[in-house]
Amino acid sequence: MEPETQRELEETVLEILRNADMNEMTESKVRTMAAEKLGIDLSGPAPKRFVRKVVESFLLSKEQDDQHATGAGADEEKKEVEEEEDDDEGGEEKRKPTISAKEYDDEGDLIICRLSNKRRVTIQDFRGKSLVSIREYYEKDGKQLPSSKGISLTAEQWSAFSKAVPAVEEAIKKMESRLR
């Protein structure tokens, strides 16, 4: 994308965000409105990534303004999950799953967590809906690409799953204590 186009797109996205009801606005809506206003295609990975960065920058700025107004100022730091993962492939090195601080893949999807070298959790926009995607990746032409091996959950499905996590953890503890 040309620098002039990027500048125009950033200004347009910021204008849309400043005038939007933030309880109703989605990144997809912002991108659609900007595409219509500028008469350009923003459906590719690079424009999606660019719009996402502008939106996040705006939201962070707004959050910091709100924190300064209330006197609460805390920077978000990179978080690490404590448990190590046993990879069922056997060949992969054990490593700690990590939660990244605003990292994106080649498709412009937000990487929430790397479970291993080949597996990650991302948030992606698909037809205007946010999906939690837990997927295995492979490398092709120097790019990490998602394989068909994995699952994508809607917000409702993720909510149901996350509510079941304590029961899953308890079942794992019971099974582990039987194996000892």
Would you give the CATH topology of the largest domain? Answer: Transcriptional Co-activator pc4, Chain A
Largest sheet: 6 strands, antiparallel
Q: Work out the number of β strands.
A: 6
CATH class of the largest domain: Mainly Beta
Please state the average pLDDT score: 78
> Could you give me the name of the CATH homologous superfamily of the largest domain?
Transcriptional Coactivator Pc4, Chain A
Lateral strand order in the biggest sheet: 1-2-3-4-5-6
C-alpha termini separation: 58 Å
Give the helices and strands as they follow along the chain.
HHHEEEEEEH
Tell me the overall shape.
Answer: globular
Helix/strand-derived category reads alpha+beta
Number of domains: 2
* Tally of helical segments: 4
How helical, in percent, are the residues? 40-55%
Name the CATH architecture of the largest domain: Roll
Radius of gyration: 20 Å
